[in-house]
Protein backbone atom coordinates (compact mmCIF):
# COMPACT_ATOMS: atom_id res chain seq x y z
CA UNK A 1 0.00 0.00 0.00
CA UNK A 2 1.54 3.35 -1.03
CA UNK A 3 2.38 5.93 1.63
CA UNK A 4 0.23 9.04 2.03
CA UNK A 5 2.53 12.07 2.46
CA UNK A 6 -0.23 14.17 4.06
CA UNK A 7 -0.28 11.69 6.97
CA UNK A 8 3.49 11.81 7.35
CA UNK A 9 3.84 8.15 6.40
CA UNK A 10 7.34 6.74 6.06
CA UNK A 11 7.15 2.98 6.64
CA UNK A 12 9.98 1.20 8.43
CA UNK A 13 11.27 -1.63 6.26
CA UNK A 14 14.30 -2.66 8.32
CA UNK A 15 13.26 -5.81 10.21
CA UNK A 16 16.41 -5.76 12.33
CA UNK A 17 15.66 -2.21 13.47
CA UNK A 18 12.08 -3.21 14.33
CA UNK A 19 13.41 -5.99 16.55
CA UNK A 20 15.88 -3.63 18.21
CA UNK A 21 12.98 -1.33 19.10
CA UNK A 22 11.10 -4.20 20.73
CA UNK A 23 14.23 -5.44 22.51
CA UNK A 24 14.71 -1.96 24.02
CA UNK A 25 11.67 -2.56 26.23
CA UNK A 26 13.16 -5.61 27.91
CA UNK A 27 10.76 -8.35 28.95
CA UNK A 28 7.28 -7.66 27.56
CA UNK A 29 5.71 -11.02 28.35
CA UNK A 30 2.29 -10.54 29.85
CA UNK A 31 2.36 -6.78 29.19
CA UNK A 32 0.13 -4.67 26.95
CA UNK A 33 1.87 -2.39 24.45
CA UNK A 34 0.28 0.52 22.62
CA UNK A 35 1.72 1.03 19.15
CA UNK A 36 1.27 4.46 17.58
CA UNK A 37 1.00 4.47 13.80
CA UNK A 38 1.73 0.81 13.00
CA UNK A 39 1.53 1.47 9.25
CA UNK A 40 2.34 -1.77 7.43
CA UNK A 41 3.08 -3.62 10.66
CA UNK A 42 6.89 -3.90 10.73
CA UNK A 43 7.11 -3.17 14.47
CA UNK A 44 3.68 -4.71 15.17
CA UNK A 45 4.80 -8.18 14.20
CA UNK A 46 7.89 -8.01 16.40
CA UNK A 47 5.80 -6.73 19.32
CA UNK A 48 3.19 -9.46 18.88
CA UNK A 49 5.89 -12.11 19.18
CA UNK A 50 6.93 -10.95 22.63
CA UNK A 51 4.20 -8.89 24.29
CA UNK A 52 1.12 -10.07 26.11
CA UNK A 53 -1.03 -7.95 23.83
CA UNK A 54 -0.70 -5.14 21.28
CA UNK A 55 -3.16 -2.29 20.82
CA UNK A 56 -2.28 -0.72 17.46
CA UNK A 57 -3.63 2.81 16.89
CA UNK A 58 -3.86 3.57 13.16
CA UNK A 59 -5.59 6.61 11.65
CA UNK A 60 -5.47 5.44 8.02
CA UNK A 61 -8.57 3.36 7.23
CA UNK A 62 -6.92 1.26 4.52
CA UNK A 63 -3.87 0.50 6.64
CA UNK A 64 -6.08 -0.40 9.62
CA UNK A 65 -8.03 -2.86 7.45
CA UNK A 66 -4.81 -4.41 6.18
CA UNK A 67 -3.47 -4.80 9.71
CA UNK A 68 -6.69 -6.47 10.88
CA UNK A 69 -6.44 -8.97 8.07
CA UNK A 70 -2.75 -9.64 8.63
CA UNK A 71 -3.01 -10.09 12.39
CA UNK A 72 -6.42 -11.76 12.57
CA UNK A 73 -6.58 -14.25 15.43
CA UNK A 74 -3.40 -12.90 17.04
CA UNK A 75 -2.71 -10.80 20.16
CA UNK A 76 -3.01 -7.61 18.07
CA UNK A 77 -6.07 -5.37 18.33
CA UNK A 78 -6.25 -2.60 15.72
CA UNK A 79 -8.00 0.62 16.70
CA UNK A 80 -8.79 3.13 13.95
CA UNK A 81 -8.29 6.37 15.83
CA UNK A 82 -6.36 9.63 16.02
CA UNK A 83 -3.69 9.15 18.70
CA UNK A 84 -4.02 12.80 19.75
CA UNK A 85 -7.53 12.09 21.03
CA UNK A 86 -6.95 8.51 22.17
CA UNK A 87 -7.84 7.77 25.81
CA UNK A 88 -4.68 6.20 27.26
CA UNK A 89 -6.17 6.24 30.76
CA UNK A 90 -9.12 4.10 29.69
CA UNK A 91 -6.79 1.69 27.87
CA UNK A 92 -4.62 1.35 30.97
CA UNK A 93 -7.68 0.70 33.13
CA UNK A 94 -8.88 -1.99 30.72
CA UNK A 95 -5.42 -3.61 30.74
CA UNK A 96 -5.13 -3.36 34.52
CA UNK A 97 -1.63 -1.90 34.28
CA UNK A 98 0.41 1.06 33.15
CA UNK A 99 1.15 0.70 29.46
CA UNK A 100 4.26 0.58 27.32
CA UNK A 101 4.21 2.64 24.12
CA UNK A 102 6.03 2.03 20.85
CA UNK A 103 5.87 3.87 17.59
CA UNK A 104 7.43 5.28 14.45
CA UNK A 105 5.94 8.74 14.93
CA UNK A 106 4.79 10.83 11.96
CA UNK A 107 7.25 13.69 11.60
CA UNK A 108 4.53 16.31 11.14
CA UNK A 109 2.94 15.72 14.55
CA UNK A 110 5.83 14.41 16.65
CA UNK A 111 5.80 17.20 19.24
CA UNK A 112 2.00 17.05 19.79
CA UNK A 113 2.26 13.27 20.27
CA UNK A 114 5.07 13.66 22.82
CA UNK A 115 3.00 16.24 24.71
CA UNK A 116 -0.04 13.91 24.54
CA UNK A 117 2.02 11.12 26.10
CA UNK A 118 3.29 13.48 28.79
CA UNK A 119 -0.28 14.50 29.60
CA UNK A 120 -1.20 10.79 29.84
CA UNK A 121 1.76 9.95 32.10
CA UNK A 122 -0.33 8.37 34.85
CA UNK A 123 -1.36 5.62 32.40
CA UNK A 124 2.10 4.98 30.97
CA UNK A 125 5.22 3.16 32.10
CA UNK A 126 7.76 3.57 29.30
CA UNK A 127 8.01 4.42 25.61
CA UNK A 128 10.38 3.52 22.79
CA UNK A 129 9.79 5.93 19.92
CA UNK A 130 11.26 6.67 16.51
CA UNK A 131 11.42 10.39 15.75
CA UNK A 132 13.28 12.74 13.42
CA UNK A 133 16.92 12.97 14.55
CA UNK A 134 16.71 16.73 15.09
CA UNK A 135 13.70 16.29 17.37
CA UNK A 136 15.52 13.56 19.31
CA UNK A 137 18.45 15.94 19.78
CA UNK A 138 16.10 18.54 21.24
CA UNK A 139 14.16 16.15 23.47
CA UNK A 140 17.26 14.52 24.97
CA UNK A 141 19.45 17.65 25.13
CA UNK A 142 21.07 18.80 28.36
CA UNK A 143 21.81 22.35 29.57
CA UNK A 144 24.52 24.17 27.66
CA UNK A 145 23.55 22.55 24.37
CA UNK A 146 22.12 24.61 21.53
CA UNK A 147 19.30 22.05 21.31
CA UNK A 148 18.24 22.46 24.96
CA UNK A 149 14.95 24.29 25.26
CA UNK A 150 11.26 24.13 26.14
CA UNK A 151 10.74 20.68 24.61
CA UNK A 152 13.81 19.28 26.40
CA UNK A 153 12.72 20.46 29.84
CA UNK A 154 9.06 19.59 29.32
CA UNK A 155 9.75 16.03 28.18
CA UNK A 156 12.44 15.38 30.77
CA UNK A 157 10.16 16.55 33.57
CA UNK A 158 8.13 13.41 32.82
CA UNK A 159 11.11 11.07 33.02
CA UNK A 160 14.62 10.38 31.72
CA UNK A 161 15.18 10.07 27.97
CA UNK A 162 18.03 8.36 26.17
CA UNK A 163 18.99 8.05 22.52
CA UNK A 164 19.37 4.42 21.42
CA UNK A 165 20.28 4.37 17.73
CA UNK A 166 19.85 6.30 14.49
CA UNK A 167 18.63 5.02 11.13
CA UNK A 168 19.30 6.41 7.64
CA UNK A 169 16.55 7.34 5.17
CA UNK A 170 17.12 4.05 3.33
CA UNK A 171 15.57 2.17 6.28
CA UNK A 172 12.15 3.55 5.27
CA UNK A 173 9.74 3.44 2.37
CA UNK A 174 9.50 6.04 0.95
CA UNK A 175 12.87 7.36 2.20
CA UNK A 176 12.41 10.60 4.18
CA UNK A 177 14.75 13.56 3.76
CA UNK A 178 16.11 13.12 7.29
CA UNK A 179 17.66 10.55 9.59
CA UNK A 180 15.55 9.04 12.39
CA UNK A 181 16.53 8.31 15.98
CA UNK A 182 15.01 5.85 18.43
CA UNK A 183 14.50 7.16 21.96
CA UNK A 184 13.69 5.33 25.18
CA UNK A 185 11.62 7.35 27.65
CA UNK A 186 11.00 6.04 31.15
CA UNK A 187 7.84 7.71 32.41
CA UNK A 188 8.70 8.96 35.90
CA UNK A 189 7.47 12.54 36.49
CA UNK A 190 9.77 14.77 38.58
CA UNK A 191 7.27 17.32 39.84
CA UNK A 192 6.94 15.82 43.33
CA UNK A 193 10.70 15.23 43.57
CA UNK A 194 11.42 18.89 42.76
CA UNK A 195 8.39 20.09 44.75
CA UNK A 196 6.93 22.09 41.86
CA UNK A 197 3.35 22.34 40.65
CA UNK A 198 3.01 20.82 37.17
CA UNK A 199 0.96 23.43 35.31
CA UNK A 200 2.53 26.56 36.78
CA UNK A 201 6.09 25.22 36.52
CA UNK A 202 5.71 24.33 32.84
CA UNK A 203 4.19 27.77 32.25
CA UNK A 204 7.26 29.26 33.93
CA UNK A 205 9.52 27.17 31.68
CA UNK A 206 7.77 28.56 28.58
CA UNK A 207 8.33 32.07 29.93
CA UNK A 208 11.99 31.39 30.69
CA UNK A 209 12.69 30.11 27.16
CA UNK A 210 10.38 32.54 25.35
CA UNK A 211 13.17 34.10 23.27
CA UNK A 212 16.48 32.25 23.03
CA UNK A 213 18.49 35.35 22.15
CA UNK A 214 17.45 37.06 25.37
CA UNK A 215 18.81 36.48 28.86
CA UNK A 216 16.69 34.59 31.36
CA UNK A 217 16.19 37.84 33.29
CA UNK A 218 14.89 39.66 30.20
CA UNK A 219 12.49 36.86 29.35
CA UNK A 220 11.13 36.88 32.90
CA UNK A 221 10.81 40.66 32.80
CA UNK A 222 8.77 40.35 29.60
CA UNK A 223 6.56 37.80 31.40
CA UNK A 224 5.71 40.34 34.09
CA UNK A 225 8.22 39.68 36.87
CA UNK A 226 9.65 42.82 38.45
CA UNK A 227 13.40 43.55 38.04
CA UNK A 228 14.08 43.50 41.79
CA UNK A 229 12.16 40.24 42.15
CA UNK A 230 14.15 38.68 39.30
CA UNK A 231 17.49 39.81 40.72
CA UNK A 232 16.62 38.45 44.15
CA UNK A 233 15.35 35.16 42.72
CA UNK A 234 18.42 34.61 40.56
CA UNK A 235 20.70 35.29 43.51
CA UNK A 236 18.81 32.91 45.79
CA UNK A 237 18.84 30.20 43.09
CA UNK A 238 22.58 30.83 42.55
CA UNK A 239 22.10 31.67 38.86
CA UNK A 240 24.24 34.32 37.21
CA UNK A 241 22.43 37.55 36.37
CA UNK A 242 23.26 37.35 32.64
CA UNK A 243 22.53 33.63 32.24
CA UNK A 244 20.34 32.37 29.43
CA UNK A 245 17.69 29.72 30.02
CA UNK A 246 19.49 27.16 27.83
CA UNK A 247 22.38 27.19 30.32
CA UNK A 248 20.24 26.25 33.31
CA UNK A 249 19.63 22.68 34.50
CA UNK A 250 16.12 21.57 35.39
CA UNK A 251 16.97 21.46 39.11
CA UNK A 252 18.14 25.08 39.03
CA UNK A 253 15.03 26.15 37.12
CA UNK A 254 12.95 24.53 39.85
CA UNK A 255 14.98 26.41 42.45
CA UNK A 256 14.33 29.68 40.63
CA UNK A 257 10.62 28.87 40.38
CA UNK A 258 10.56 28.46 44.16
CA UNK A 259 12.49 31.68 44.71
CA UNK A 260 10.21 33.69 42.45
CA UNK A 261 7.14 31.99 43.88
CA UNK A 262 7.81 33.72 47.19
CA UNK A 263 7.74 37.13 45.47
CA UNK A 264 4.78 39.38 46.07
CA UNK A 265 3.54 39.32 42.46
CA UNK A 266 3.66 35.59 41.78
CA UNK A 267 0.17 34.67 42.92
CA UNK A 268 -1.45 37.27 40.69
CA UNK A 269 0.48 36.02 37.64
CA UNK A 270 -0.82 32.50 38.23
CA UNK A 271 -4.43 33.63 37.92
Description:
The protein is of the alpha/beta class and 271 residues long. It folds into 2 domains: 185 residues, Rossmann fold, CATH 3.40.50.150; 77 residues, Helicase, Ruva Protein, domain 3 (Orthogonal Bundle), CATH 1.10.8. The strands form 2 sheets. A 7-stranded mixed sheet has the order 4-3-2-5-6-9-7, sandwiched between helices. A two-stranded antiparallel ribbon has the order 1-8. Strand 5, helix 5 and strand 6 form a beta-alpha-beta unit. Helix 11 packs across helix 12. The termini are far apart.
Key words describing this protein structure:
271 residues; 13 helices; Helicase, Ruva Protein, domain 3; seven-stranded mixed sheet; 40% helix; alpha/beta; two-stranded antiparallel ribbon; single chain; disordered C terminus; Rossmann fold; elongated; 2 domains
Short description:
This protein has 271 residues and is α/β, with parallel strands linked by helices. The protein is 40% helix and 18% strand. It has 13 helices and nine strands.
List the helices and strands and how they pair.
Layout: E1 11-12, H1 15-23, E2 32-36, H2 42-50, E3 53-58, H3 61-70, E4 76-80, H4 88-95, E5 99-104, H5 110-119, E6 124-132, H6 133-140, H7 150-156, E7 161-167, E8 172-173, E9 180-186, H8 191-194, H9 198-208, H10 216-222, H11 227-236, H12 250-261, H13 266-269
Parallel strand pairs: 2-3, 2-5, 3-4, 5-6
Antiparallel strand pairs: 1-8, 6-9, 7-9
Helix pairs in contact: 1-2, 11-12
